[in-house]
Amino acid sequence: MSTFVLLTITGLGLAALYFLVASGLSLIYGLMDVLNFAHGAFLTLGGYAAWLVTDATGSFTLGLVCAVIGCAALAALMETALLRRLYGSHVPQVLLTVGLLLAVTALVRQVFGSDARQLATPAWMNEVTEILGAPIPNNRFLLIVVAVVVYLAMSAFLARTRYGLIIRAGVENRPMVTALGIDVRRAFTLVFAIGGGLAALAGALTGAINNVVAPDQGTSLLIFAFIVVIIGGLGSFKGSAVAAVLVGLLQQYANFYGLVGAGDLIVVLLLAAVLLIRPQGLLGRASA
After folding, report:
1. 130, 192, 211, 278: which has the highest count of C-beta atoms within 10 A?
2. Does residue 184 surpass a pLDDT of 80?
3. Residue 14 belongs to a domain
4. Confidence class of residue 52 from pLDDT cuts 50, 70 and 90?
């Protein structure tokens, strides 16, 4: 019983991490029809920004806040200076965002080296709390709480604010929103800033869990984030949350009860099944 509890809670922690990354990706694609591979760069930059500020000030919380704000600003700058010229051109978008991911990863490796850097975190994060006999690392609870707070805050933002309504309407029917005379460019920039901030938050928390940050941490997380977005439904914020829980729990259970690496195989099989049975994703809408 204790093993099952441990696997479930750590699986939910992994799901929370996937959700933080995938939610921004889902919004960006749903509103702007952009496959943003540069999202992985903000995962890496968020981790290193948190490490730099924490190392200089001794405050992990301040490092987390600075990472989110800094990467949100960089994401907004990237959208206005680079991507805005390429809307509707999918191949140039992919080439640009993949190029940015590779360039940022290489730059981080050049500046800070290829070796992982240790990220100092508060002592309580490295302690454990026993639940039904299972010792659960406190940092997993932090991940779950942060993901729930982000989900509730984003749900309220999308449902109750003017920009949130524009974003939701744009996801459903962007040409109609434009025809009504609403300037969606500001909403585009805001969505990119939110996505960059969430990616930085996930990158910093990844460093907190592993106690280290590394140049390639963004690439590995990005792969599973895209899988979560596709399974949940492109453009569906709620779908990303549901898919993240499924993927996180399946990975944990399969890796423990199955063979080594079975978790990744199960996730790929789930992706294949969803694409065959419901190509628009669990909560996505089929195109006409």
Report:
1. 192
2. no
3. yes
4. very high
97-133 tens-digit pLDDT = 999 999 999 999 999 998 889 998 888 888 888 888 8
Count Cβ atoms below 10 Å from residue 243 Cβ, excluding itself. Answer: 29
- 184-202 in b/e form (b: 16+ CB < 10 A) is beebbbbbbbbbbbbbbbb
Residues 32/188, Cβ–Cβ less than 8 Å: yes
| Number of domains composing the chain | 1
DSSP three-state, residue 216: coil
Averaged pLDDT, 50-56: 94
Question: Which pLDDT value is given to residue 120?
Answer: 87
Range of the structural domain that residue 101 is part of? 2-277
Local confidence band at 287 (pLDDT 50, 70, 90 cut-offs): low
Residue 1: exposure state from Cβ atoms within 10 A (0-12, 13-18, ≥19):
exposed
286, part of any domain:
no
Domain harbouring 50, CATH code: 1.10.3470
